[in-house]
Amino acid sequence: LKIGINAKCTTELKNLPAWQTATKWMTTEQKTNIQTEICGCVSEKAPQSVTAVDLATAAIDPAARATIISNAVTKTINACVAEALN
């Protein structure tokens, strides 16, 4: 689940207007370092918002897995961006 969460985080992060604004003047290395920090945070926090039923469903249904991962990332990414950029 964490691998999927990390991949989704990277995609979601690049689409966030706050991310685009905050990183406009950063070097590629700075962006990469902060992205790693944010997605690490999301990978740690997102599974906490997933229930046991969700985990069981994700184990057997790939479509449900994608939805569960997306919801978990959405619930945590903004908090992690705020943490990393402060």
Please summarize what this structure is:
The chain is 83% helix and 0% strand.
Please describe the topology of this protein.
Layout: H1 2-15, H2 17-22, H3 28-45, H4 52-60, H5 62-85
Helix pairs in contact: 1-3, 1-5, 3-5, 4-5
Description of the molecule:
Helix 1 packs across helix 3 (28-45). The model has no long low-confidence stretch (mean pLDDT 89). By secondary structure, the chain is mainly alpha-helical. It has five helices and no strands. The radius of gyration is 13 Å and the shape is elongated.
Q: What is the H-and-E element order?
A: HHHHH
Largest sheet: none
> Which stretches of 5+ consecutive residues score pLDDT under 50?
none
N-C termini distance: 28 Å
Please state the overall shape, judged from the principal axes of the Cα atoms. Answer: elongated
What is the share of helical residues?
over 70%
The radius of gyration computed from the alpha-carbon positions, rounded to a whole number of angstroms, is 13 Å
Q: Structural class from helices and strands? A: mainly alpha
The total beta strand count reads 0
Question: What's the number of helices?
Answer: 5
- Oligomerization state: single chain
Mean of residue pLDDT values: 89
Strand content: under 5%
